[in-house]
Design goal:
Elements: E1 3-12, E2 15-25, E3 30-34, H1 41-49, E4 56-60, E5 69-72, H2 84-94, H3 101-110, H4 126-137, E6 144-148, H5 156-173, E7 176-181, H6 184-190, E8 193-198, E9 201-207, H7 208-214, E10 216-222, E11 236-240, E12 243-247, H8 253-262, E13 269-274, H9 276-279
Parallel strand pairs: 3-7, 3-8, 5-6, 6-7
Antiparallel strand pairs: 1-2, 1-4, 8-9, 10-12, 10-13, 11-12
Length: about 280
Amino acid sequence: MIISGINLTKYYGKRKVLDNVSIGCASGEICGLLGANGAGKTTLFKILFGLITPDSGEVILPNQSVKPIGGIIEKPALYEYLNAQDNIHLFASIQGLQLSNLEIESHLLKVGLPIDRTDKVANFSMGMKQRLGIAIALLNNPTCLVLDEPFTGLDPLGVSSLRKLIADLAEKEQLAIILSSHIIEELSKLCHTLYVLKEGKLVNAGPAQQLIAENTEVYNICADNIKQAVCLKNYQVEFKGNCAMVTIAAAEVPHLIQLLDKEEIYITSCTPELSMEKLFETNR
């Protein structure tokens, strides 16, 4: 593991905000932290960064790095009256780096920002600010990147674009990336491993697609003539237009698709409907 948090517990007064939480992320891996607001995600990240101290447990980081971990907690902290180049220059100086103009441009290009914009960052979209924040987080080449709710405030195009950037950084730069969200759809598209927090407790963890499959009880199957399917009579089904909400185990879905195909019912989409209640069960 590039980064590990082991048995982390944190109290604020008498309130336990983290309860014996363990998390780890390897090089090239994207780990998602899923939880509602107040679940303890930001507190966990602040502990990983060393901004606050856990009451028990430990954080293990690479000790050979100048800056083992970089990231954004809550939102990018930028000097909005400066342009992107000046922001990178200033934050680089704070971190003991003296960058040339070409090096600054390379940092902007790495995160997909234009090098010809000289206006102040206040004019940037939220997606561009997130990218600039990531560029600053990557100064001094950390081996781990932590992003706290990176998709908040982005439109669908911005979400898709940022998701691709994060995937590219993990694959091409071999970063260990941990990101939090309360939106399971985004984490399911991006993450290799998923950790589920509820009221400060880690209630579920494992390979992301495996967890989704294990906690999916209904699949939304669409086809133009879906209501004619004889094989669906063997399942609990609710029809909605050209779609059927089928209660079925994930392992049985391929067989059902074969049966539908034999009946010449050609599926246009098959989408899992994740049971959030089951995923967040605390008595597992």
